[in-house]
Specification:
The chain is of the alpha+beta class. It is 29% helix and 18% strand. It contains five helices and nine strands. The chain is globular and about 45 Å long. The two termini are 32 Å apart. The N terminus is likely disordered.
Length: 201
């Protein structure tokens, strides 16, 4: 009877938390990230395997509608331009279900990318298959991978959502600099600040 009570408690706790036994565990530092093939706003499919000579990858989960993501758009664009020449490829992924957030539809992604002159593939996670594998929970949420797709940094881009000029800690850029020097990023993880990902229940 005690065993049955404990089992029911276990099931109820994980039901409340939204955990399901087959849900992938979020990536930790040192895990190897999955590759993907996702459709970009130019109509082409992109994945990390398309960049054979890359020294690393900056995977950013972001979207159109979130105020936090909007505040980071220019910074993300600048990062893509700056680090492409250094061998780091930025791939931005919209993980949201447009049925729940119409502003994040594929068609409006194309509009936004053109308006802002995005210098990176802006990819649509159709069917929401990729973001759960990474364990992304916010927009924006950043995963820095080395050339072998090993996760080296997870979290925020920097320490100031509201103002790029007032940033004191450039977490992502510092992590890339550490990789360039053959060192371990410090910190390896930070808290991603942003909107929750809009997913079907």
């Amino acid at each position: 009877m005690k065993f049955l009570s404990a089992l029911l408690l276990f099931v109820s706790v994980f039901s409340i938390s939204g955990f399901t036994p087959d849900a992938p565990a979020p990536y930790k530092i040192g895990d190897k990230a999955t590759d993907f093939k996702l459709k970009s706003v130019d109509g082409k499919m992109y994945g990390m395997s398309d960049y054979k000579d890359a020294k690393g990858f900056i995977v950013v989960f972001t979207c159109n509608h979130c105020p936090f993501a909007v505040k980071y758009e220019d910074r993300i664009n600048d990062l893509a331009k700056k680090y492409k020449s250094k061998g780091y490829i930025l791939l931005a992924i919209n993980p949201n279900d447009p049925a729940l957030e119409p502003t994040d539809s594929y068609e409006l992604m194309k509009v936004r990318a053109k308006e802002k002159g995005f210098a990176f593939p802006y990819l649509f996670d159709e069917g929401q298959k990729i973001y759960p594998q990474y364990g992304a929970t916010k927009t924006p949420h950043v995963f820095l991978l080395d050339k072998n797709r090993v996760v080296k940094y997870i979290g925020a881009i920097d320490d100031n959502v509201d103002s790029a000029k007032e940033v004191k800690e450039k977490y992502l850029e510092n992590a890339i600099a550490a990789l360039e020097s053959g060192k371990t990023p410090s910190p390896e993880t930070t808290k991603a600040i942003g909107c929750s990902i809009k997913a079907k229940k």
